Amino acid sequence: MPNLSSDPGGDYVGAMITRRRLAAVSALFLTSAALLFAHGAAGAAASALTIQHPWSRPATAGGVGVGYFTILNPGKTPDRLLRVETAAAQWAGLHVSQMRDGMMTMDEIKGGVRIDAGGRVDFQPGGLHVMFIGLKKPQKVGDVLPATLVFEKAGRIKVDFKVETGAPPKPMADMPGMKH
């Protein structure tokens, strides 16, 4: 050990300084390891979310597209889908269609969509869905619309919405009282 003092007890003082440094470095290492373990455990829980069958319908450039998928959360912690981001449209938002007082309504969802621990949430025609407003190019069958689902705990999960033919949407004129 180096002698860090000029007095006769310098070896003792140097050893004490070295022990303090070693203790500080050890504490820093243990704290870092604990944080990495906690983040790794959270990441493992977050990666437990599964996104199944993301799909969209054909749509015109400048128009409105729609996205459907299923979220599975086999983990022990609930999560929340906060938003959807995409460069393929001017704006993407979470919406729900539902019957209210005999009229079909569509509302933007504020505050995200909760996915319970061990739960499943279906985004499907006539219910929860993603609206892609101001599509930058036409969406034809076989195309892919890339997007990112942003979750409270799982973070960002990239998905590709495959453009498919699905159950045809009801024409807006057939939905009396349709409001947004």
UniProtKB/TrEMBL annotation:
InterPro entries: LpqE-like, Lxx211020-like, PCuAC_sf
Protein name per Swiss-Prot or TrEMBL: Copper(I)-binding protein
Organism the protein comes from: Caulobacter ginsengisoli
